[in-house]
Design a protein that fits this description.
It contains 14 helices and 13 strands. It is of the alpha/beta class. The longest helix is centred in the last third of the chain and has 35 residues. 36% of the residues are buried.
Length: 383
Amino acid sequence: MLRVAIVGCGKIADSHASQLQRISGCEIVAACDTEPLMAQQFCQRFAVKKYFSDLATLLRGTKPDVVHVTTPPKSHFEIAKSCLERGCHVYVEKPFTLNEEEAQRLIAIANENRLKITAGHDDQFSHVARRMRTLVQDGFLGGSPVHMESYYCYELGRSGYAGALLGDDRHWVRRLPGKLLHNIISHGIARIAEFLTAESPHVIAYGFTSPMLKRMGEKEIVDELRVIISEEESATAYFTFSSQIRPLLHQFRIYGPKNGLILDQDQETLIKVRGDRFKSYAEKFLPPLIFAKQYLGNAKTNIRTFLKNDFHMKSGMKCLIESFYRSVVDDTPPPIPYREILLTARIMDAIFVQLDANRKDDQVQERIVAYSTTRSAEELKAY
């Protein structure tokens, strides 16, 4: 029986606890939050016996085998480091760390202590994502990926998490290097990282604040992001994050030299796209029928999974946790290779560096424009 502790008792911690209660062979023995009332209420909701407001006291008092870190990202590194140094395996919610350097250090500490660590990229372990992975591994693409497209949208409104962020100039998300993007885009980037082979792909990023947010008086939050990722003479990828696209997309498309696959996370559908074309007018009639048959097959698969009571909203998280725990018990490689965790962090670092540089360039241009309205041509030239 694995003894599990949860550190950080916010909303995402409830999702972890709910999935842990579906998994045999583990028990939540304690929870911790710097706000004692949060920890106490969490333990009441999930019948956990002990709660703490201090991590060191929890580790000494309960000696958990695994710790789930579900705190805001800024604290991930220090909490995970402390847990690893006390002999605990660690599951860290996304984003794994604030940057690649921290990710490298955590993985190094885990390896030095013969412990396992993983990142909460649970979307990659949903039913449909696992079906896609199997097809790719079985060679459906006809070779290595040629191009990928990852879409991850997010609705910003006045209620819930987004409302709190937009209404609070001191919200913790605003203090992240990538602000809103930092807390969300790792899911979409990780999908691409899984199929890249280069260690340092070329990244070109462009982001801006949408007109909707500007009308609300927002100037800092970037909610529209477009990224090109490329490997030298190999695979390319596009990543799109948007708060404005409708419908909200959570899709991944991957194309090889022979065939392609289209995954829709929201609808839990996986569509095979054949590379060959039918002759003459058959190309106009047969593909729609083939796609219709596939969508019907996806619906049947989803219904069967639902009837087995395994089609809940966080089934991917359940699968990832189970896979991670098996790697702990059997001492096998963790479900997400460390290379993918590091590559995801590396790409995100490159995105945020470019966005920050672009923002500073825009500020310089704004100062020049403002200066030019009040100074002569000679003075502006000197400036």
